[in-house]
Write a structure and sequence with these properties.
It contains 13 helices and eleven strands. It is of the alpha/beta class and about 350 residues long. Strand 2, helix 6 and strand 3 form a beta-alpha-beta unit. Helix 4 runs parallel beside helix 10 and helix 5 packs across helix 6. The structure holds pyridoxal-5'-phosphate.
Length: about 350
């Protein structure tokens, strides 16, 4: 790959970051905090949060099998997605390549940052062609976006093909594994030692049941994480979120149970959809949702909305004509959807 100094924007490389009060003393135990213009009352909310989330990183590192210095937390993965553009992509000069169809935020953040977005179509099995992705790159391609399991298709992307891209590309390959907990595939975060040009995304929003607290994360080698820490807002993860995440991590057994239940329900729902006369195809999935091709997705979607049941209509997404994306809910919620569809 290119050296990090070549890949980063010049202004980011030269940036001297904001130094927050809490960063300047370290290694000492503080008992009197008069450094940050905080109000002394209303503990614990009067205090600024830890800008580097040391305690949370220690726990997350252990759970995820990475080092604390290989983690950067964001206000959802969405913050990290934006951060990647701001660190690596010169507006109106650089470009990124991404699989298509995929998660919509990669393109929205490209547009916001004035970075050209080059979608490369998946094949009819929703798999990537590493050659085609690489062919779409030029000297100014800084990032390649790969989402696996992919949203909205649900399938895992072949890891051999991803590795071909990682080996051949001289920039950063972002591998978004938001749904990895629902899959048995070996996660790419465990391959950080082998590949120095990957950034892997995870989130608390899906398997961990914490979409409301907004906690996403990037795993990458320390040199890349150091850059993210310099560029992100110093207090991007608030006190409530850090506390709630720490509590959630202490009870990972609960998450294991949720995952097992959701996977069992997912298989039941996919079988039931296959039996519906109005469903022509159910696509394979490794996530907590599946994509189904229907007779008339728009009409079925409208009918479900009238019955108070909301699924995601993906009919206007490329290669997803007449497809609905169905998230797995509780057994009761899933049954309500099936009952409605049987009466359609
Ligand atoms: C849901 C999802 C995320 C999670 O985003 P957050 O901002 O962490 O909630 C990230 N990537 C993909 C592909 C997703 O589907």
């Amino acid at each position: 790959m290119k050296k990090l100094e070549e890949l980063l924007r010049d202004n980011i490389l030269k940036l001297s970051p904001y130094s927050c009060a809490r960063n300047e003393y370290s290694g000492h135990t503080a008992t009197v905090l008069l450094d940050a213009n905080e109000n002394p009352y209303n503990n614990p909310y009067n205090r600024y949060p830890d800008p580097l989330q040391v305690e949370l990183k220690k726990m997350m590192a252990k759970l995820k099998g990475v080092l604390p210095e290989q983690i950067c937390f964001g206000n959802g993965s969405d913050e990290i997605i934006d951060l990647l553009y701001r660190c690596f992509c010169r507006p109106a000069v650089d470009n990124v390549v991404a699989i298509e169809p995929t998660y919509g935020m990669y393109k929205v953040c490209a547009d916001i940052n004035d970075v050209q977005y080059r979608p490369v179509m998946l094949d009819d099995k929703f798999q990537i062609d590493s050659e085609a992705l690489l062919k779409a790159c030029d000297d100014n391609t800084k990032l390649i976006w790969i989402c696996s399991p992919n949203n909205p298709t649900g399938n895992l992307i072949d890891s051999g093909e991803i590795e071909k891209v990682v080996n051949a590309f001289d920039g950063i390959v972002v591998i978004d594994e938001a749904y990895t907990d629902f899959s048995r595939a070996v996660p790419f975060r465990l391959k950080l030692a082998k590949y120095e040009n990957i950034v892997v995304l995870n989130t608390m929003s899906k398997a961990w049941g914490c979409a409301g607290i907004r906690l996403g994360m990037a795993f990458a080698r320390k040199e890349i994480i150091d850059v993210f820490n310099k560029v992100k807002y110093p207090y991007n993860i608030n006190v409530l979120t850090q506390k709630c995440a720490i509590d959630a991590l202490k009870d990972s057994f609960r998450v294991e149970k949720w995952i097992n239940t959701i996977v069992v329900e997912r298989n039941r729902m996919m079988n039931a959809f296959q039996m519906l006369p109005i469903c022509s195809k159910v696509y394979p999935t490794d996530a907590n949702f599946f994509l189904a091709k229907m007779d008339d997705a728009q009409a079925i979607y409208d009918y479900l909305v009238k019955n108070g049941i909301i699924v995601r209509n993906r009919t206007n997404v490329c290669m997803c004509n007449n497809c609905l994306r169905v998230t797995i809910g509780t057994r009761n919620e899933n049954n309500a959807l099936l009952a409605a569809l049987r009466q359609y």
